[in-house]
Amino acid sequence: MSSLSLAVRDSSTMLRRNLLHARRYPSLTLNLLLTPIMLLLLFVYIFGDTMSAGIGGGGADRSAYIAYLVPGLLLMTIGSTTIGTAVSVSNDMTEGIIARFRTLAIHRGSVLVGHVVGSVLRSIISVVLVGAVAVAIGFRSTDATALEWLAAFGLLALFATALTWIAVGMGLISPNAEAAGNNAMPLIFLPLISSTFVPVDAMPGWFRPIAEYQPFTPAIETLRGLLLGTEIGHNGWLTIAWSIAVALLGYFWSTSKFNQDPR
Q1: How many CB atoms lie within 10 A of CB 167?
Q2: Planar angle of CA 127, 73, 165, nearest 5 degrees
Q3: Can you tell me the distance from the alpha carbon of 37 to that of 31, in angstroms, rounded to the nearest whole number?
Q4: pLDDT attached to residue 1
Q5: DSSP secondary structure string, 174-202?
Q6: Distance between CA atoms of 200 and 206, rounded to whole angstroms?
Q7: What is the distance between the alpha carbons of residues 157 and 96, in angstroms, rounded to a whole number?
Q8: How far apart are CA 21 and CA 245, in angstroms?
């Protein structure tokens, strides 16, 4: 077999291993999935009328705020799900299984590829579940064309891949699972200070650059434009640039740490 065929075979095996672990121990993924769902229900049913009145400058309209909120929470779901990836990678590094893999005739990068592909699949499934809850409570995207839905799916997959590589790196540098979860917390904290809940223009002047110059805000605005028909502007290109940059940074960081000889 060629080296490429061996890499694909070994990566497929590691992907099956990763998905099997996720199926046997679903509590971590479910706990992380509950965060965006609870925020969705909280902001829609408790703050929805007030927030929509403040954003729109008119009467309270909870359905309008649902439409505004959902794109941001879909991307927050990805950030939340990838925390489980950091924990899973840290467990592999500290429980001895990686030391055994290093002695076997398998493609070295297949372990990381299995984690990344498995995490992206879990992220997409989590986004679908949160989206289903959003639709159940009133979210609608009637103006989006089939091409825009396809572009939205591609954006979510690209963003999930980028965040997953960063989460893998965080798991590799963590001494234990608890530290990995703490190190990966920015992946769910950054959406909280983005345009998920309120427009950037409504934020205080000193705080606005923090929300504007980070990867989540342009991604949220792009997804919002694709699903709701709002103006995308330069946010689409910024999202692609951020995603590629973060993915490359995470990839080189992760592979560099993984290829280091164990202490």
Answers
A1: 29
A2: 65
A3: 10
A4: 55
A5: -SSHHHHHHHTTHHHHGGGGTTSSS-GGG
A6: 11
A7: 31
A8: 30
> Can you read off the two tokens belonging to residue 262?
């164990």
CA 217 – CA 221 distance, rounded (Å): 6
Q: Tokens 């590691």 label which residue?
A: 14
- Taking only the tens place, the pLDDT of each residue in 82-120 is 988 898 888 888 887 877 877 777 777 788 888 899 999
Cα distance between residue 96 and residue 253, in whole Å: 21
**How far, in Å, CA of 203 to CA of 108, rounded?**
47
pTM of the shown model: 0.89
Tokens of 99: 């030391």
Cβ pair 164, 120 in contact under 8 A: yes
Pairwise CA distance, residues 97 & 103, whole Å:
10
Assess contact for 40 and 133: CB atoms under 8 A: yes
Using one digit for the tens of pLDDT, what is the confidence trace for 139-152?
888 778 889 999 99
CA gap 114, 125 in Å, rounded: 17
244: left (phi over 0), alpha (psi -120 to 50) or beta: alpha
Quote the Cα angle for 81-87-91, to 5°: 145
Please list, in sequence order, all residues whose beta carbon lies within 8 angstroms of the beta carbon of residue 78, skipping any fewer than 6 positions away: 123, 126, 127, 156, 159, 160, 163
What are the tens digits of pLDDT across the range 210-232? 888 999 999 999 999 999 888 89
**What is the token pair recorded at 105?**
């005739």
The phi and psi torsions of 76 (rounded to 5 degrees) equal -65, -35
**139 CB neighbour count, 10 Å cutoff:** 21
DSSP 145-170: -HHHHHHHHHHHHHHHHHHHHHHHHH
